[in-house]
Amino acid sequence: MSAGARPEGAVDDPGVHRALGLTDDEAGAIGRILGRAPNHLELAMYAVMWSEHCSYKSSRIHLRRLPTEGPGVLVGPGENAGVVDAGGGVAIALRIESHNHPSAIEPYQGAATGVGGILRDIFTMGARPVALMDPLRFGPLDDDRSRWVAAGVVAGISGYGNAVGVPTVGGEVVFDGCYAGNPLVNVLCAGLLPVERLVLGQATGVGNLAVLLGSATGRDGIGGVSVLASAGFGGDAAAEEAKRPNVQVGDPYEEKRLIEACLQLLDEHLLVGIQDLGGAGLACATSETASRGGVGMDVDVTAVHRREPGMRAWEVMTSESQERMLAIVTPDDLERLLAVCERWEVRASVVGRVTTTGRLRVLEGWGGEVQADVPAASLHEDAPLYDRPRRRPADLDRRADDDPARLPPPEDPGKDLAALLLDPSWVYRQYDHQLFLNTVVGPGSDAALLRLAAPGVPGGEGRGFALSTDGNGSWCSLDPRAGTALVVAESALNVACVGARPVAVVNCLNFGNPEHPEVMWQLSEAVDGMAEACRALGLPVVGGNVSLYNESRGADIDPTPVVATLGLVDRLERRPPGVAFAAGDRVVLVQPPGTRPSLGGSLWAVRRRGHRGGRLSPLDLAAHLRLLGLVTGLVADGLPSGVHDVSAGGLGVALAEMAVGGGVGAALAGVADHVGLFGEGPSRVVFCVPPDRLGTLTQRARDAGMEAVELGGGGGDRLVLDGLVDVAVADLAAAARGIAGWW
Amino acid sequence: MSRFGALVEVRLRPGIADPAGTTIERSLPTLGFGDVSGVRTGKAIRLEVEAADVEAARGRVEELCRRFLTNPVIEDAVVTVEPLPGTVPPGAASPAGPGEAPR
Amino acid sequence: MSRFGALVEVRLRPGIADPAGTTIERSLPTLGFGDVSGVRTGKAIRLEVEAADVEAARGRVEELCRRFLTNPVIEDAVVTVEPLPGTVPPGAASPAGPGEAPR
Amino acid sequence: MTVTVGVVVFPGTNCEHDVAAATERLGASARLVWHADGRLGDVDAVVLPGGFAHGDYLRPGAIARFAPVMAAVETFAAGGGPVVGICNGFQVLTEAHLLPGALQKNRGLRFVCETVEVEVASDRSVLTRGVDPGRRLRIPINHFEGSYTCDPDTLAELVGQDRIALRYTDNPNGSVADIAGVCNEAGNVVGLMPHPERACDPLLGSDDGLVLLGALIASSGAPLTGSPAAATATA
Ligand SMILES: Nc1ncnc2c1ncn2[C@@H]1O[C@H](COP(=O)(O)OP(=O)(O)O)[C@@H](O)[C@H]1O
Ligand SMILES: [Mg+2]
Question: Fewest CB within a 10 Å sphere: which of A73, A409, A697, B9?
Fold first, then answer.
């Protein structure tokens, strides 16, 4: 053994670390950690591990303010996925990620590999992935490039998600000019596991082996995380060209076999630990498992099965080739592990050994030359932490004072209403949303509702879980703090609308360039808004992801925190009512007394008038919490015949969606003007209820401190709002579907 | 103006993973084709173009590749162009007959 | 035994609908390629084969096409084979370099 | 005697548990059969479920048809045993030449997942035996390559021999003659693109699939004497 041998080839040219994206200070810190100048391989490993994407160096100090604990939380942020106890021995693993930058340059593969990555985060925890969601944001579809991006992203999610065999049960599609140069492709995955199968990505047991499973390693995305996720798009053709080789190609078939092989390995108790390879590849997976286990690891780079000849050690260690996992196994179990892998046609190579040293050493063959030797934990724990300057945008007060209520009212509110509808079925029709026979409510409603069941996961019989993803850049750009709180409130309410009790959230913080003080201010405010709302609503944040540098040509996107809420259903006996009117039933708006919707940041103001000013409607979190309980209870008890929360587009859009959803119109009154029609604000739900249950519903609403405003009755084939709107339901449906014509 | 037939082979750029090719290759030994290796998959697109001469035709097809048929991030294209003998009857499948390669 | 490079063009048989080709063709005029027509899409598969001579290599590849690479209900194939210069390093992407067409 | 349904699993198959659950709901017992096994074991019917065997690379079903289990399936089918291919399983059966025709990309060039209406067009298949022709069922489809294609002679034969088991009432993918499912001459081998197992529980929106899977289980349990399948099989 060459223990004690020192890696050769110290780099003393500052050009090298700068090219790798490390600042001079960061390079200096590395030198101090090692007590010597790092060589190229070591620098490359620190560069990817200390990149914004892997280290959260700009956001970490803020994320600490989020509430992360709660009675059901088995695993909070910091692991591959959050895990929530669903009772009965079943747990739910949840995680959301962004793949914004890769999707901007190769939409299909960018989105596809985003799906692949999030799935690995879930089955790394020992969970079987059972549901995907895809909150998406693009530029307007009348732009050729946005259309190309949108169509490619949807095809990529469809191509990967369907083939890997995990249903995509919901998501979002939003079009706004601020995303034209930098689309947002977020992907959420939920998985189910028997609680006792929960594993954490750690290596323990000196002498245990690290086995690399899955695809051969190529030069895919070398330095991808630092290059792609940690820099915006300059609009400079040469720079974009230079990023191109970083695009990776996904292989859902490999991933499917990996899922089955890993779950079988876990069921047969053959693993000490397991970790997916994501950003920063082997460098990350080996150092992370070692440092979590408080051990060291020797890695033989020559043992890594490769796709390309002539790869250098630093390329092997930082490659982001997809569909790979690192399993930690005792030497005694190796043979059985290899047998399971052979059955699933998954390649397996022993690439590492657990050591006592706490160091990550990269060797050229066992006993061969030491190529790198660094403290494993330093790649994570010693990553820099920045409190970047923050500044409230100078134009914010002016924008807040510019109230869109002063805009001239629409001449034909019905026409504006139709123009605001968007039927996303063009998107989700391309997704398998039914696999596993779990999908009680698929895409197209307020939230997805699934049975709490998966192959190999007993204990959830008769119960269910719900998921919703929500974001609103227009609100958050006017007031990131209040806007984010509104987004949390909406997401929880969506889940309640299918009869579920909201229990936890994960989030994806999509922001602009953190080197712009305004962006850091937005991020900080958003975190505070989320923390405040989650605390008040009893929703621990069990995981998240931060995507920065979402900008193009110097313009940052609107701050777009995306929140995903998990809800539980204790008795899943019937299908919830759905977004619909029923003929002959009463239509009732339930809200806290004194609710005042606002046109500030509303869909109507932004989309119909290009106006991005005003103030957001206030949120009373205590009232909202009572509303959540009320709605969950009413739906779970099967009282209403239709239900829909009021969100973007206001009451008008909510009513129109109910009309289109059930194919039944309504004759309604009580909406005074276009502010009442299109104004947005929290804590409002429209119910459709059989006349004989109206009294009960009204009483229960009052008991919860809400007012129940009877708007009229369902029936007919037109949506009529006395004095404002009179449109055929068929015309609304056609307008909503109009979007499909663009693709 | 004359008509030219073109074959565009859209390939994954060298170094880009080709899961389909890898999977096909892995299945070959069981089929008794252990002598076949290095499988890479791509698209073959045949089309006809109206142009003054072969070079102009090739230029048009290459432009089409760049702008539309490939994403240069992961793909490149090999273009072959040949003059078409006379008029091609509408609906004819492709300029070259079966077994005949474009030059 | 020598190594040969082969290009298999898998085409939809004449008369079999090609919605992908039709869709590309329909979008061409708006992209400024009204001079392009007759678009048909297929697959291009490159592979290497070990054989005694070109004819043997071609025979093997044609057999592979018949048994596996095409579905004769809807597809046929055009095979081109050429000797590979020297030994090809393992994992090399494809026999022909970029821009170079097989003959 | 409970009917035992063998559910074939290729690497990349993903509907095997769903098919097993649906058949078990109907009182049958389901057994997963691994593609690399050359034997089916003691089963009364075989289902090739949906998914993406071998990633659907090259063509859906093109690699799977060479799996060792397929020789056993062929023997089982030749003996008159009921064999049903759902979605990807249908694609495998056409590639294996157990059913005529081929499945091409959908006319719209996009994956389609939605519930469609199909009409039982013939009761000659093991999947529709005892079901009144003309009966309409709401069953989900979930495919990219589901546009059934065959040459005019084959189509004439399918029509002439009453072998079109199911037709779409509103063709979602461009299939010739609105074909959603076909069977072999004996009626014991059936392929269909819709997923009956996804429509076996009112909680999920429809239980029309029970009609088809129930027919399969009924024809698997009963001795096939006198049925067209047995007649051909013993001929
Ligand atoms: N990209 C997508 N993928 C899958 N489902 C989607 C997508 N976009 C929207 N949906 C579904 O369409 C429905 C309406 O979405 P949305 O209007 O965002 O709901 P809400 O306003 O209640 O949050 C939801 O069920 C959602 O899951
Ligand atoms: Mg909603």
Answer: A409
pLDDT the model gives residue C97: 34
Contact residues, C window 22-81, toward D, CB-based 8 Å cutoff = 23, 68-69, 71, 73-74
Pairwise CA distance, residues A166 & A130, whole Å: 6
Which residue's alpha carbon is at the smallest distance from atom 13 of ligand 1?
A: A444
Mind listing the pLDDT tens digit for each residue in A388-408? Answer: 999 999 999 999 999 999 999
ipTM: 0.91
* Boundaries of every domain in chain D: 4-234
Is A501 exposed, middle or buried, given 0-12, 13-18 or 19+ CB atoms closer than 10 A? buried
User: If residue B35 lies in a helix (H) or strand (E), which one and from where to where?
Assistant: none
What contacts D95, CB < 8 A, 6 or more positions away? Answer: C71, D59, D60, D61, D62, D64, D65
- Ion ligand 2 residue ranges (Cβ < 5 Å): A 446, 494, 645
Would you give the end-to-end CA distance of chain D in angstroms?
27
- Claim: this prediction has a pTM higher than 0.90: yes
Q: Which class is domain B2-83?
A: alpha beta
Distance (Å, whole) CA A414 – CA D113: 32
Domains of chain C by residue range: 2-83
Read off the pLDDT of residues A589-607 as tens digits, 9 standing for 90 and up.
999 999 999 999 999 999 9
Instruction: Give the number of other Cβ atoms within 10 Å of residue C1's Cβ.
Output: 9
Q: Could you give the CA distance from residue A332 to residue D103 in angstroms, rounded to a whole number? A: 48
Class of domain D4-234: alpha beta
Residues of A in contact with D200 (CB under 8 A): 437
Q: Which residues of chain B have pLDDT under 50?
A: 88-103
* Sign of the CA dihedral with A31 first, then A35, A36, and A38 last: negative
Distance from C-alpha of A731 to C-alpha of A733, rounded to nearest angstrom = 5
pLDDT, residue A78, reads: 87
Residue listed under structure tokens 């103030």:
A615
Query: How many angstroms away from the CA of D11 is the closest CA of chain C?
Result: 18
